[in-house]
Design goal:
This protein starts with 9 loop residues before the first helix and ends in a 6-residue tail after the last strand. By secondary structure, it is of the alpha+beta class. The protein is elongated, with a radius of gyration of 23 Å. The chain has two domains: 10-75, no CATH class; 85-217, no CATH class. The strands form four sheets. Strands 3-4-2-7-8 form a five-stranded antiparallel sheet, with no helix packed on it. It contains three helices and eleven strands. A hairpin with a 6-residue loop joins strand 3 and strand 4. The protein has helices at residues 10-20, 41-51, 62-75; strands at 82-84, 88-96, 107-109, 116-126, 131-133, 137-142, 153-159, 173-179, 193-198, 205-207, 210-212. The longest helix is centred in the N-terminal third of the chain and has 14 residues, at 62-75.
Length: 218
């Protein structure tokens, strides 16, 4: 929003129209106008024609609606059924090296058995603009790259790309990592590590043997 008249710029108008033209918006019946700018009649009159058949009500206290919504969500997180991811989130992992598809600079050799694998691979957990239900869990299974690993580390990345091959590509950002204790190495590389990523919770809680991460709050 710019200027004392709170007029929509051409860029913002195009952005809003692009959002409203998406197929998933066809089922949307209401768009609630909230926040300080929503109290401007000029702004509301500019937004409503863009929404076409969608009803755009504005509460009496538009300025405090966001604060009230935050309180309601804090008391009952299930008040919001789903959220749309603003970025793509991924886990870095290693996999058996395939010369046909993998970059040779990513080639690594196991110290224990000489196994050749590719590192820094991108494993998507949720994509940008995907709708994710509150407390939805993404399950992933991993195996150690070394048979004597006791504290494998998992790194998490986010990007505005829809897909990628490696986690160190341009635009990638590492925002979190965790170490999973695995003192028993009897199974070697056959030891299975299960990582569950839960979306939509309100805080990050590293715990013993389990890690809970709120991707969508980053």
């Amino acid at each position: 929003m710019a200027g004392p008249g709170f007029c929509l710029s051409q860029t913002r108008t195009c952005t809003l129209r692009a959002i409203l033209d998406k197929p998933e918006m066809a089922k949307v019946q209401y768009i609630l106008l909230v926040g300080g700018f929503a109290s401007s009649i000029v702004l509301r009159d500019a937004v409503r024609p863009l929404a076409r058949s969608i009803t755009c009500p504005c509460p009496t206290e538009a300025q405090v609606a966001i604060a009230k919504g935050a309180v309601l969500f804090g008391v009952n997180p299930h008040f919001v059924a789903s959220r749309v991811s603003t970025q793509t989130y991924s886990i870095a992992l290693g996999h058996k090296f395939d010369a046909a598809i993998h970059n040779f600079c990513k080639l690594r050799v196991s110290k224990a058995d000489g196994c050749i694998y590719c590192t820094d691979l991108f494993k998507k957990s949720v994509g940008i603009e995907e709708s994710v239900n509150i407390n939805e869990v993404a399950h992933s299974n991993f195996h150690p790259t070394e048979p004597n690993q006791t504290n494998p580390c998992f790194s998490f990345y986010c990007t505005e790309k829809q897909n990628a091959q490696y986690v160190d590509e341009e635009g990638m950002e590492q925002f979190w990592f965790c170490t999973v204790p695995m003192p028993d190495t009897k199974l070697g590389k056959k030891h299975q590590l299960k990582i569950d990523v839960k979306f939509g919770i309100t805080e990050s809680k590293p715990q013993s043997w389990a890690v809970i991460i709120d991707f969508l709050a980053v």
